[in-house]
Amino acid sequence: EQIEKGGYEHFMLKEIFEQPKSIQDTMRGRLLVDEGIIKMAGIWDHLEKFSNAGRIIIIACGTSWHAGLIGEYLIEEFARIPVEVEYASEFRYRNPIITEKDVVIAISQSGETADTMAALKLAKEKGAFIYGICNVVDSSIARITDAGSYTHAGPEIGVASTKAFTAQLTILSLIAIKLGKHNGTLSNVKFVELITELDAIPKKIEEVLESTHDKVKEISKDFINAQNFLYLGRGYNYPSALEGALKLKEISYIHAEGYPAAEMKHGPIALIDENMPIVIIAPKRGHYDKIVSNVQEIKARKGKIIAVVNKGDVQVSAIADYVIEIPDTSECFSPIVAAIPLQLLSYYIAVYRGANVDQPRNLAKSVTVE
Ligand code: G6P
User: Fold this and answer.
1) pLDDT in tens, 60-95
2) Residues with a known catalytic role
3) ipTM of this model?
4) Residue nearest (by alpha carbon) to ligand 1 atom 8
5) Which residues have a Cβ under 8 Å from the Cβ of 301 and sit 6 or more positions away?
6) What is the pTM of this model?
7) Pocket residues for ligand 1 (CB within 6 Å)?
8) What span, in angstroms and rounded, lies between the C-alpha atoms of 218 and 348?
């Protein structure tokens, strides 16, 4: 096992550090920047199905569901196809309206999650076109879907998903951009800008791992006795907040909630005092000014602010108690970059609390029962 961990203390840390490669592997042969094309067999062969879809329904559980939420933002922004994202467990039991014009995308690292599998079977029975985004080759979900794209993240051992999540975001980005190009809802200029930026993401992940690791490790020490955490973000980074909170809950057993920053005033603000750590994801692209006012509201209530901002940030950094800088990227790819310090934060808090990071209590890597 020590050899498999490749010198890292835990699989989770190894997998966090593998992300420049796993994202690169997921894009390999698909994103051809020099030729200006995205080549994905699964989509290529069924472009009309997607383009003519009345809507796309994404079903998933856990971290994969968070990736699905970001997928909704991506597909609606670039391909202008309406998207709904559902927990597989809810979808399967609520007699959902599904038609033959629907495309249903299941996202699953393991490809074995029972609820996701059952929801897909239901959609298939009703005649929808079903598509899979799985990490495990030849898994049950990969086998029953009409088509799909594998994430090539490699085996993920740590129960808390890290590299599979960012690989899912990579696939969803490719799909959204490809469909946008095909549908004519994305200009050529914007297409080139997006693929060039996506191609640069593995380098930026390398950079963010290098530049934030030690700092996040230090910050973590101050929060080992925290009892609650709030994670806030807006737009594309609202799901980042959900995922950040989930990571912390899963492995450190600290209660954490993710919220859209603007919704704070409808409840969570009542919880803020000097004992409440609040992680704010505030890259400069995307509602930055609005986030600044949220941060001011938190400060006025003495909350402890850990801000994830872009390099060179001034406004939020001046107010925050702790600042983690990440490289700038397009707003739509910022969840991929922002995920890294959030993964590291939950990892180190859990390690300092003496938790079993790779196999947290009560959780399973693959949930094959209801
Ligand atoms: C379990 C795992 C999570 C995962 C979820 C969905 O809860 O612990 O890490 O996100 O299942 O799994 P899937 O394999 O369908 O992505």
Assistant:
1) 999 999 999 999 999 999 999 999 999 999 999 999
2) 365
3) 0.97
4) 365
5) 269, 272, 273
6) 0.97
7) 61-64, 108-110, 113, 116, 159-161, 363, 365-367
8) 9
